[in-house]
Amino acid sequence: MEASAGEVFGVTVSAVCRRLGMSRQNYYAQRRRRQRQAVDADLIEQLVVAERRLQPRLGGRKLYKMLQPELRAAGVKIGRDRFFEVLAQRDLLLEPQPAEYPCTTQSRHNLPVFTNRIKGLQLTGANQVWVSDITYLRTAEGFVYLALITDKYSRKIVGHHGGDTLETEGCLQALEVALAILPAGARPIHHSDCGSQYCSHRYVNRLAELHLGVSMTETDHCAENALAERVNGILKQEYGLGATFQTKADALRAAAQAIRLYNTRRPHSALKYQVPDQVHQFGLN
């Protein structure tokens, strides 16, 4: 037999209230609050799962900021601690993944190198400094080497190219992609490590033709090119590019999709939880 409206598991509400030392009014208020919290948690789970289908490794802090407009529209007010409680209860917290940093920097060469011109430089907008780096994607057909150019101010990936080798050509192709969307009159400083690709005469001469400043790491490649390294890690750990793909074509398609999502949907704490594409166009609000 089902419990009546005034019973809980066959015990009267009045008896429960006496045992808890509370009024019936408070008891029903707390029950409504628990029911509302359960409904809110269901909505949070649905929103997080939906976003994780696109960005499987997007962390809780970014999700909390990103989902606020939809939660507010549903009348849900929730603090960050409670949000993380819901993620923990619904098994939606991410397990940390070990980072991989393979060596793609061929710095043992006799080509000229340049000083670090961006150390301590304060940026006020996009297209003032570009940082460049190369990472790799594993496939059953061999490696794909992904050359990336990222705007230091907006964190937007402005140029990329995937190729079969670590030769200069792939980096030049990524540079040309970035140049194609560079506004007239903009002259970003190009910063990179001291790898042979970026020190090559072809690459340096192309930068000189365009009157772009050249800057390179001097002592600690990772620390002095930290943003570029960080972008590599995000693409691999959050967007699945650290996996082994069946074909090189699969890897290239995955890279293009990951870069699109990263640019248009991934909020950054350093950007006040705005996405790179928005900051690149309109500045930091």
Q: Could you explain the architecture of this structure?
A:
By secondary structure, the chain is α/β, with parallel strands linked by helices. It is built from 12 helices and 8 strands. Strands 3, 4, 5, 6, 7 and 8 form a 6-stranded mixed sheet that branches. 28% of the residues are buried.
How are the SSEs ordered, and which strands pair?
Layout: E1 7-8, E2 11-12, H1 13-20, H2 24-54, H3 60-66, H4 68-73, H5 80-89, E3 129-139, E4 142-151, E5 157-163, H6 168-180, E6 189-192, H7 196-199, H8 201-209, E7 214-216, H9 221-224, H10 226-238, E8 244-245, H11 248-265, H12 276-282
Parallel strand pairs: 3-6, 3-8, 6-7
Antiparallel strand pairs: 1-2, 3-4, 4-5
What's this entry about, in short?
This protein has twelve helices and eight strands. The protein has helices spanning 13-20, 24-54, 60-66, 68-73, 80-89, 168-180, 196-199, 201-209, 221-224, 226-238, 248-265, 276-282, and strands at residues 7-8, 11-12, 129-139, 142-151, 157-163, 189-192, 214-216, 244-245. It is α/β, with parallel strands linked by helices and 285 residues long.
